[in-house]
């Protein structure tokens, strides 16, 4: 009983000082009441019901995890099965799933998954029904993951998986246009998913689907910030969805953030600006925060906004590796909460 952990004056040789006040934070060891009180007062004692909200970023051959609940940097979380990008992403509260991307000289049909709770290399999930080489976008609920659009015939396809199992993707329906072929952003509530197409000369349309059913995309409205916009990202809680970043092919990247109320239909409204203008960006969200990660030119920037408000993004931290042509998801996005 002579060994002490001087961080919290814990008398034991095997104790663990909590890494936060999340319900999953370990606090093994022998503690006296005054030590517990001090840690609780400082916000470092595990609290039942206080879940840790994590984002996962998949890019090329690496995956990174980011703790959305606090501010700070991303950490390396594992390696993908194969080097490929850009991928599409969806997630449950347990699994992050990445699909498609360029592999070798063409489109990939690979679907793989990783766990938010345990670091390690990706595991095989199954195959896409239609191989996809560049971003459409992924979204879903806690049960079902959906991959929509992307280059690779047919370009207007919508595919779905059951996230808790493994197996090949199934046909869901078709988007309203083949313009949803690359650089699209998407997000969801528990019932509805929304995907915005890549830029065209007129406007940028949004389609929506009901996640629990199958069928074709229906018109939701238009993105109004720019009439020609590619390579942007989506993130949402259960009520409000945000699109951030992008560019006009051959032009400068944008710092635009705009939003919609998912339960309604209609055009986007201005939200604010990113801290850095960039394209080929990834997004993810908790019930309160949206984060935008990486982007081109190769940057490790992570910035965030509070979803319920409007205003400009604030610096969050940096990725463990600079990343673009990546995709993000989280264990507490709008399709879960």
Walk me through the topology:
Blueprint: E1 4-5, E2 10-11, H1 33-41, E3 54-67, E4 75-84, E5 88-91, E6 95-99, E7 102-103, E8 106-115, E9 123-132, E10 137-140, E11 144-148, E12 157-162, E13 170-174, E14 185-188, E15 192-196, E16 204-210, E17 218-223, E18 233-236, E19 240-244, E20 256-261, E21 269-273, E22 282-285, E23 289-293, E24 301-306, E25 314-318, E26 327-330
Antiparallel strand pairs: 1-2, 3-4, 3-26, 5-6, 6-8, 7-8, 8-9, 10-11, 11-12, 12-13, 14-15, 15-16, 16-17, 18-19, 19-20, 20-21, 22-23, 23-24, 24-25
Short structural summary:
The protein has 337 residues and is mostly beta strands. It is built from 1 helix and 26 strands. 52% of the residues are buried.
Q: Overview of this structure, please?
A:
- The protein has 337 residues and is an all-beta fold.
- It is 3% helix and 43% strand.
- It contains 1 helix and 26 strands.
- The strands form 7 sheets. Strands 5, 6, 7, 8 and 9 form a 5-stranded antiparallel beta sheet that branches. The chain has a 4-stranded antiparallel beta sheet with strand order 10-11-12-13, with no helix packed on it. A 4-stranded antiparallel beta sheet has the order 14-15-16-17, with no helix packed on it.
- A hairpin with a 4-residue loop joins strand 1 (4-5) and strand 2.
